[in-house]
Amino acid sequence: MGVPTLSTLSTLSTLSIIFGVFNGASTAALVPRWDQGNLTNGNFNASCAALAKSISIENVTVNFANFVSSGTNLTFPNSDPSCTRPFQVVSADLCRVNMNVLTSNSSGFVMEAWLPKNWTGRFLSTGNGGLGGCVQYEDMAYTAQQGFAVVGTDNGHTGNGGKAFLNSPEIVADFAFRATHTGVVVGKQISKSFYGSEHKKSYYLGCSTGGRQGFKSAQDFPNDFDGVVVGAPAVAFNSLNSWANHFYILTGKNTSENFLPAPLWTTVNTEILNQCDSLDGLKDGIIEDPSLCNFDAKPLLCAPGVTDGCLTSAQVNTVTQVFTGLFGEDGYLIYPRMQPGSELQAVRLYYTGLPSPFADWYRYSVKKDPNWDPATLTPADITLALQQNPSNIETWKGDLSEFQAAGGKLLHWHGMQDPIISSDNSARYYDFVSQTMGKSPAELDEFYRYFRISGTGHCSSGPGAWKIGQSILGSSEQTSQDNILMRIVDWVENGAAPETVRGHKYVNDTASLGTQFVRNHCRYPTRNVYDGQGDPNLETSWACTN
To answer: CB-based contacts of 242: which residues, under 8 Å, 6+ apart?
Structure first.
């Protein structure tokens, strides 16, 4: 989609999307423009070096523009340790541009644009993760390698904590939507200046918080992207944070009678597989469709006189509550249950007997108290979080008609063993869109398709065929059927809508060791079922059924 100028930002949304200094900004002057042919014929390095001085965009300061050769191991000595990204290997010749962007008198963000020499004419924005104060350089490297002019931001603050949110609504606005959108606007102009022509198509790739950012773009800025890939989206954001914090209430500390030590969660997992693994026709340790698993924890109750390998009545109640949705003061569903099958990973995050590692949103934004104790979470707090909803960060709009009208395509996926964001919520959002727009799945298929990726954790990993091309870590074969990023490109540019998304499971998750099995993941609401006869490692032995 097209390149808006900064002067048009204030008209892009009735939400007054760009505050302070960006309101009414004048059109940026971007000179000079270089011919793309010259860029690929020896002048690329010189053009990159000249870019920093040639860009003039209001409220944007270019810190440097450097040529980076393929194979360079970039280091980021000033990166916050919580970002866990001290370096990144780059696999394409590119021009790296680093900038500071002001969004108000009290807020701004750091962004980078990576402009590859092998540009395909495509633009892409990456997203963030967690509380989102880290540029995801790995996603920039992954997409630049494939010829996208790509941008990424630190989302308006530094590091993965939430301290910056305290009494800072402008910083929260950057985190909620503004940094991503403004980064796209600035990035498109820089790309046009450098290459001498506008991009042909614009794309988005993100998971977790990045998934929420992708949906926020489709909901509020329908012209930003032609194609959007969102994984494990943190939509219903305030509700998700309430749900993440409530597990501490359920389990208590590790001295509580309600608490389950980690080995007992292995016992729970074994019983879940006993009850639900064969629902897809094959007992292989993977539940294809957890929504069919109505797990009953009562068989794990200790018999009289038995204390090993079983649960007390208090522990049975804890497990039952974990796999039950969170409801609010008025009986309204705040957030769905944790899906069965994720417990071996979730025990390291939510069932530890310690506060949630994601409690900062409540501490610094909702309660505005750095000393807030998650053990005091109440239904009234949950209501408060929903009522506050700063910058509509909940990201729970069901009407995507403007995105559809703009010709956008949305490819949504979620791992069915996600231990951080329940995959049940992705189906809930898809159904909400269907109900809000009054469209059946067949009608939504025109622009919005959701795929359930079995045996997959949060954005990656797991016992299933989780490598679908969603990232460097998840890279697989480079055909459009095997690579979800190329899948959206094929849909947008060739009209080839995806019927399935093929995933690969390599031996020890290492491609050089060979393929363990391949599976075509089904489009919701259909589900994968084994035919009972063929080799279960072959995709042809499985079928998508209603």
So the answer is: 326, 334, 335, 362, 377, 381, 382, 385
- Cα–Cα distance, 488 to 227 (Å, whole number): 6
- Residue 301 near residue 226, CB atoms below 8 Å: no
Which of 458, 471, 475, 482 is flagged as catalytic? 458
Give the bridge partners for 208, in sequence order. Answer: none
Q: Which is catalytic among the residues 208, 422, 471, 476?
A: 208
Tokens coding 77: 């000595």
Name 445's Cβ contacts closer than 8 Å, sequence gap at least 6.
Answer: 497, 523
Maximal CA-CA distance, the chain:
82
Q: Is residue 208 flagged as an active site residue?
A: yes
Phi and psi of 48, rounded to 5°?
A: -65, -45
User: Tokens representing 219?
Assistant: 């909901």
Please give the Cα distance from 171 to 86 (Å, whole number): 24
Element of type H or E holding 485: helix 484-494
Distance CA 411, CA 205 (A): 10
Q: Which residue out of 280, 418, 482, 490 is catalytically annotated?
A: 418
Q: Whole-model pTM?
A: 0.92
Give phi and psi for 302, each to the nearest 5: -65, 135
Cα–Cα distances (Å) from 239 to 146, 336, 448, in that order, read: 36, 10, 23
pLDDT by 10-residue block (mean), the chain, 546 residues = 43 33 32 46 85 92 96 93 94 97 97 97 97 95 97 96 97 98 98 96 98 98 98 98 98 97 98 98 97 98 95 98 96 97 97 95 98 96 98 98 98 98 98 98 98 98 96 82 95 97 95 95 98 97 96
Q: Tokens in use for 88?
A: 């990144």
Annotated active-site residue 154? The verdict is no
Give the whole-angstrom CA distance, residue 490 versus residue 143. Answer: 15
Q: Does 181 participate in catalysis according to the annotation?
A: no
Q: CB neighbours of 343 closer than 8 A, spacing ≥ 6?
A: 265, 268, 269, 272, 322, 351, 419
Helix %, strand %, coil % for the chain, to 5? Answer: 35, 20, 45
Nearest to 139 by CA among 449, 471, 371, 441: 471
Q: Which stretches of 5-80 are assigned E, i.e. beta strand? A: 29-30, 55-56, 60-68, 73-75
Q: Would you state the structure tokens that stand for residue 398, as one six-digit string?
A: 């069901």
